[in-house]
Write a structure and sequence with these properties.
This protein has 374 residues and is mostly helical. The chain has helices at 3-24, 32-45, 56-70, 87-100, 109-112, 114-124, 127-138, 143-154, 159-167, 172-197, 206-231, 236-260, 262-293, 298-309, 313-322, 331-352, 357-373, and strands spanning 77-78, 81-82. It contains 17 helices and 2 strands.
Length: 374
């Protein structure tokens, strides 16, 4: 750990105590700057820690959300330009980046792993929509905000699930295939499920939503796939830049939505956080256990748990914007994004330290073979 990281740890400790004391003394409205700086300092500090550095992006999101909550005017309009206008272009850039990281081989998994893909897709588009529907109606939240919970559940998985599968040493090939297939199915299944489950809360235009998803997701991904096919390796700087650009885009989207819905969040924030946590957690729990009951191996079951529990919150935000309801329907995706990164990172790290039954059998077989050759 270098001196800069040590200073950051010390600074974060001071700022954290300062924010807490000010809040306890009734000055919670004035802790914006120290709170934001606290998150920035701790995000930089934990980059020096091998175990914790994976959480640095999530902590940066908390800094961005805190800034949006305390200073919303800075993130709603600049020079007459409404910053909500950035959401769809940023989402398209993120999806283009997703396409550049994919290849046709990702879709071959449908042939190589048909059972895993079928079970994964069925879990993806049944578990989360049904749980979201139940939570939306049981939560007592305003209709448009409740519809956002269903919208998250009806969205496909995103790149975050692939990262967690990699960290946890799950079935990464299956994860990539499921994300690709779920994304391609989303223009049909997401509007269909929203029409079926959320139409009583907000009017759902199936055709309009279908074309919105095609524009925001499918076309950029196809462009990314074509770029990867014809220009792979010719622009190495782009390969390095796209993950950073994607993370920055996600941060900006969450910040803008938080600022737009700040007043609603102040009223229903804790309830929404609780609902989102239940939604996310049950996705992991049911996704994993249904796969195990279906005879899937542990590595593949862990993969599908991430694919089910971690949704493409950016796409859900873009759909909410296209519907003109980003400050209401967009709130659940804005909360779900950071939440799933915290829970997903924690679960991935825990699973990484717990060998699967298949790993143990492989290790045992290897040790037996070594002993027999002695």
């Amino acid at each position: 750990m270098n001196i800069a990281h040590k200073i950051s740890y010390a600074l974060s400790a001071v700022l954290g105590v300062t924010s807490l004391v000010m809040s306890l003394l009734g000055h919670g409205a004035d802790i914006g700057i120290p709170l934001v700086t606290f998150f920035l300092a701790i995000a930089f500090a934990i980059r020096s820690h091998h175990f914790l550095k994976g959480f640095s992006f999530t902590v940066l999101i908390f800094a961005a959300v805190s800034a949006a909550m305390y200073y919303p005017s800075l993130f709603t309009e600049i020079g007459g330009f409404n910053l909500k206008g950035l959401i769809v272009p940023l989402l398209m850039i993120i999806m283009f980046g997703m396409g550049t990281s994919m290849s046709i081989s990702d879709f071959k998994g449908v042939i190589k792993m048909p059972k895993g893909v079928l079970i994964g897709i069925l879990c993806q588009f049944t578990i989360m929509p049904i749980i979201g529907y139940g939570l939306a109606y049981l939560s007592g939240l305003p209709p448009e905000i409740a519809a956002g919970i269903i919208l998250v559940g009806c969205s496909p998985s995103g790149l975050a699930s692939n990262v967690m599968s990699y960290i946890s040493k799950a079935n990464l090939a299956l994860s990539l295939t499921l994300t690709a297939v779920a994304t391609l199915l989303s223009p049909i299944l997401t509007p269909f499920l929203m029409k079926l489950l959320a139409n009583q809360l907000v009017p759902i235009d199936f055709v309009s939503m279908l074309f919105s998803i095609l524009k925001m997701v499918i076309l950029p991904i196809i462009a990314g796939l074509m770029f990867n096919r014809f220009f792979h390796g010719k622009f190495p700087w782009l390969d390095k830049a796209m993950p950073v650009i994607s993370m920055a885009g996600i941060a900006i989207i969450i910040t803008v939505i938080t600022a737009a819905g700040r007043d609603s969040l102040l009223t229903i924030g804790l309830t929404l956080i609780g609902v989102v946590l239940i939604h996310n957690s049950f996705g992991y729990l049911l996704g994993y256990n249904i796969c195990r009951l279906s005879g899937m191996d542990q590595r593949s079951s862990r993969t599908i748990a991430f694919e089910v529990g971690m949704q493409n919150a950016g796409l859900a935000s873009g759909i909410a914007l296209e519907m003109g309801r980003v400050a209401t329907m967009g709130l659940a995706p804005a909360v779900f994004g950071p939440m799933m990164n915290i829970t997903g990172s924690s679960l991935a790290t825990w699973w990484r330290g717990k060998p699967t039954k298949e790993d143990e059998e492989t290790t045992e077989a290897t040790e037996t073979a070594i002993n027999e050759t002695r």
